[in-house]
Amino acid sequence: MSEENTKQITHCTFCGSSKEAVKKLVVSESVSICSDCVALCQTLIDDDNDVEIDFTPEHEPEVIKDYLDLHIIGQHDAKKVLSVAIANHYKRINKPPKDIEIQKGNVLIVGPTGSGKTLLAKSAAKYLKVPFIVADATSLTEAGYVGDDVESMISMLINAANGDIKLAERGIIFIDEIDKIARKGESTSITRDVSGEGVQQALLKLVEGTTCRIPKEAGRKHPGTDMNEINTKDILFIAGGAFVGLKDVIANRMNGTSIGFNATVVDVKLEGDLSNVSPDDLTKYGMIPEFIGRFTTTVSIQELTKEQLVQILTDVKNNYISQYQYLLSLDNIALTFTSEALDQIAENTLLLKTGARGLHSEIERVLMPHMFHTKRYKENNVTNINIDRELVLRPKSLYE
Ligand SMILES: Nc1ncnc2c1ncn2[C@@H]1O[C@H](COP(=O)(O)OP(=O)(O)OP(=O)(O)O)[C@@H](O)[C@H]1O
Ligand SMILES: [Mg+2]
Predict the structure, then answer these.
(1) Which residues approach ligand 1 with their CB closer than 6 A?
(2) Is the pLDDT of residue 50 over 50?
(3) Do 77 and 299 form a contact (C-beta atoms < 8 A)?
(4) How far apart are CA 333 and CA 343, in angstroms?
(5) How far apart are CA 397 and CA 159, in angstroms?
(6) Which pLDDT does position 1 carry in this prediction?
(7) How far is 31 from 369, CA to CA, in rounded Å?
(8) Rounded to two decimals, what is the model's pTM?
(9) For the chain, first and last CA: distance in Å?
(10) What is the whole-number distance in angstroms between the Cα of residue 280 and the centre of ligand 2?
(11) Which protein residue has the closest C-alpha to ligand 1 atom 4?
(12) What is the pLDDT of residues 132-183, one digit of tens each?
């Protein structure tokens, strides 16, 4: 820097303040900046780091539900409740209030297998364009025991966000099979229950909001490993479980116990309905109250009806039928089903008691002989396969 030049610069190039008016003036050959402008620049840089990740999809519950309707048949109550829970969750993160603290509300989905619990959570995450992972509660253990400790879910989420911690901090973690970590038996045992209650205890802090230190490299935490710090307060936890037997717990509560002096005799036994589930029922089932307390929204889903199963086959985006129609179209064969055939597939599926999951294996069973013989179909210029009820009851190709 030549002395001649520095002598000439006596004012901040950015704000024009004179050297005397500011605390410090940093001068280079042709420009200068005062300490006030440096401070201003620093806040601009800091603000930029804080820039909200753009979660622009509409956050109105009705808009979210419209999207869920494209992918999930039925389960309207669940879709409504989940849409509101998500909308509130992201309102809370994007516009936190200054003077009050809004408690985080995680979501618990209860309902029979194969009826859309995981699909609900997955579709919600897709809509919000946030990282999403499914963790299996049965593989989780308390820290210190063999197995995945609960923080492994956070590592998975960071991976799903391609290492972007800020993005991961707003992701969704779906904990599947949550009912499998219910305490066995209603009385608290003196010995620690590693697989059940212990895991619920270990999850408490995480789902409520805490800072975790996660090794950057997967593997064991040992001194000197580079760590990522991640706060879980804005991660939405959705837990799902089939809770087999919960209906009986609800029914018992609703019917009252008929033991005791003043017991009323109940003539009509009410059937337990999952949509009436209360926190108390879940505690009776074996979830610890502290855990249930952190899942403020409980959503129940219902067993799918035959009509809904047919709709799943034909109406949802990317449905099974269009998948197989595409596969056969590659051999120039069109695939159609009569409505009686669809009904029969749905009926067979109901018997499997695996919800909509059974549809896939049913369709596969029906179409297998045809898919096997595509070569012959092509040689004989067969360009259309129409599946009727008979072909569902006794699947066979046109050549058997
Ligand atoms: N309501 C639904 N609408 C559309 N498809 C559905 C619905 N329910 C289930 N399915 C289909 O069935 C498959 C299994 O559903 P999902 O994984 O959501 O079941 P789940 O309720 O989580 O069962 P589990 O308790 O066994 O985990 C999904 O991939 C989807 O294709
Ligand atoms: Mg599931």
Answers:
(1) 72-75, 113-119, 176, 240, 242, 304, 312, 316, 355-357
(2) no
(3) yes
(4) 23
(5) 46
(6) 45
(7) 81
(8) 0.74
(9) 94
(10) 24
(11) 72
(12) 899 988 888 766 555 567 888 999 999 999 999 999 998 999 999 999 988 8
